[in-house]
Amino acid sequence: VFSSAEGKKTGIPSRMLVYLCKKGQIERISRGFYKIKHVDFEQDFEWEDLVITALSIPHGVICLISALCYYNLTDEIMREFWIAVPHSTTSPVRDNAHVIRMRNMSLGQTTIKIGNQKLKIFDKERTIVDAFRYLDKETALKALKTYLQANKGGKPNINKLLRYAKKLRIDLNPYILAFTL
Fold this sequence. Notes:
Layout: E1 2-3, H1 4-9, H2 14-23, E2 26-30, E3 33-36, H3 48-55, E4 61-62, H4 64-70, E5 81-86, E6 97-102, E7 109-114, E8 117-122, H5 124-134, H6 137-148, H7 158-167, H8 173-180
Parallel strand pairs: 5-6
Antiparallel strand pairs: 1-3, 2-3, 4-5, 7-8
Helix pairs in contact: 4-5, 5-6, 5-7, 6-8
């Protein structure tokens, strides 16, 4: 997956991209983004479409259901890809994507590598707090419970979770007390 700007940097003019699309050597994914055909991805097939969608959205960060699925904090099936963009930008339209405009995009933002692509995603703690902000209570409570019972995913960082919750004005104390007592 590459952008037309990246192609231009390597010496491929935009008219050549159109020609390569007509010849079937590359595929246009969305405006300004292309995928080379007949190349096997090195990442799991499960995440291929998420990678393509996330790369096609400038300043996009994987969030909410998509992040919960990535961290195995939900049993929901990801029917569309959830991507956060800065509140000051216009939400781009993508097939099978749910774009959310958020403030404070730097809080809890981290980078993951899927195949040979680096993607921005919110960490587990930010994702759980956002679940209480944007999703239904049932999904958010299941994610929190799974996070607090984490065995193989590492020890839960409750202080970080509470710090994020306070910064984003969500009171998680009653839920954490209920699940830890």
